[in-house]
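Subject — a protein and its fold
Fields — amino acid sequence, structure tokens
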Amino acid sequence: MRQAPRVSKLGRGELEARVMDILWRAAGPLTPREVYDVLARRRQTAIAYTTVTTILTRLCHKGMLEREEQGRAYAYAPVADRETWTATRMRDLLRTSGDRAAALTQFVQAMDARETNQLRRALDRRRRR
């Protein structure tokens, strides 16, 4: 006898991250059904279609997605690419840290040599502007 798939118990943040990853990888805006289908193909557990629509609506209200009408549904797309969004989050986190210099120091100390070199090159390019 075949078992029914388990209903997902992912936290909202983890599910939001997976949905954003799908949208960042997409060639254009996706409908909730298209996002749902990608999630269903990638996962071992089932997720409700209504959960996907709720997550897309929340991400839109948070300003991370924009939507456009596509027939009877909406199609969703990120307002910024992954790198821009990540940089914005990093700035927001630094702004809310108690000691910005200490947070930056901890961040840089956790970098490997390749990342440190990338940061140096970025700072050199900025200095030359």
